[in-house]
Amino acid sequence: MMKPLFGLVGSIALALGVFTAAPAAAGPVQCVTFARAYSGIDLHGNAATWWGQANGRYEQGSAPRVGGVLVFKATGAMRVGHVATVSAIVSPREIRVTHANWSPVDGHRGQVESDVAVIDTSTAGDWSQVRVWYAPIGDLGRRDYPVYGFIYGDHATAPATAVAVAAIEAMPVELAGL
Question: Whole-model pTM?
């Protein structure tokens, strides 16, 4: 029951423009701020640190689940990693994610993109490497990214709606676009 309620909160926040980018001077919405509010997974710090932080706090695995967070490893091109929330499972090797600060949208970074394609490009089919939709080219990006796996929210200890509302309310006005 919590997942649909949380999805509703996230959808309402998106519809109301809570996660749209603020004017350039205010700064972009970061992937971690968005993923924390949208998924209810209460982790902080750079995206690449989420995997280690989740140990013992949240269930982790290599299979996508709607509402789970895909955690990207840090790389030379992406020094702090990235996190994206799974919004749909299309097939065993394709999902949709909703995330922030990936593609520049209308020339600006820090935007939220909903339901973009992510495919598993690992040779073993284990979701250890992915390719992500990139808006400027209108297709999957040209680069594969290593990932740790998925973190699954534990809404039994923290109701998702309360977590989402608290995270949204805690966002600085500049980042929330209010």
Answer: 0.74
